[in-house]
Amino acid sequence: MFFAFYYIFALFLYLISLPFLLLLSLKKKYRKSIPARFFLYKNPPFYEKRYWFHSCSLGETKALKPIMDQFENVNLSVITNTGYEEAKKYKNADVRFLPYEIFLPFWIKRCNALIVMEAELWYMLFFIAKKRCGKTILLNARISEKSYPKYLKFKWFYKKIFENIDLVLAQSHTDKKRLLSLGAKNVQVSGNIKTYFKPKITTQYIKNKPLIVVASTHPNEEKAILEQLPLDRFQVVVVPRHPERFDEVYETMKKFGKVVRLSEMCKVKSDKCPLDGDLVLADKMGELVNLYAVSDIVVLGGSFVDNVGGHNPVEAAYFNKPIISGKHIFNQKALYNEVEGIIICDVDEIREKLKNVKNTFIKNSVDIKNIIEYIRN
Fold first, then answer.
1. Do 167 and 218 reside in the same domain of the chain?
2. Cβ neighbours around 71 below 10 Å, total
3. Would you say residue 225 has pLDDT above 80?
4. CATH of the domain at 88
5. How far is CA 212 from the centre of its chain?
6. Fewer CB within 10 Å: N-end or C-end of the chain?
7. Confidence class of residue 198 from pLDDT cuts 50, 70 and 90?
């Protein structure tokens, strides 16, 4: 009964939205996604019976990669165009846009298991997959404090969805309690897969005194940050976010003392490399993780200017390094919430904050092996 009512309601919404969908499909942003999702244009069902992963957009799709890499071949569906473009990079994935719900009873074929990321709680998706796949899993599930009251208002509806989900893997114990209250069954805490980070140290840098890494900086940040650092007590490495700015940043750094380029060090291939000079410009790509590993303090850029939104703090926190950040972190709030101990301040407060730094750690760290076992078993 509920299935029939829901399907009729979804069909009604589809019919009244058709003119709007046709207009939106003319925009470049939706030129691929809307024809594929709402008209099945070049969007056939998956050909092979495999593990089927589903994510919404770019961030969720990227987060799935270390898990999908554990499988030889997978099916992967997405919602947005950015998610689709990212998914197409994965050589082991057959990629589709997820069609609108009225098409799913005819579109979904048999699969080993359906694994859905975070809050993609589509009733028809889980209802049909429950009947045609080995199991259904909600992965990296999270209910924020802000959205929880809204979920509770429609508890009756989410309970219907959770009836068709065999296993929920929650980010934290708090999320587990909230999900159970909404009707979820068999909830396990597996951590946040967006915190997964497996670094490969390619060069062991040797510092000559305590080291500050000023990471992923943007225009107007280098000068403002360097003015706050006690350069007589620390060795400082500045890592610009974009390589085209290397020469520009070099000229800025010269105002604070003699600058040595990282690219000029250790030209003979070796596992170890001394960091020469008290002021170093990291003008080589792919060295940030190596520098994090040997650092004493990290000042994380992209957060002291208001047009970037911050950068991922997890990589530095993996090494338990003290992190000082600016307040402009609107693009990274979710990951900042996963790291305990970050000091957030204005740029002119950095010198004072350096006196009381503390180590950071990742709160909801994830074990990929456990997740793979849940999916396969």
1. no
2. 16
3. yes
4. 3.40.50.11720
5. 26
6. N
7. confident
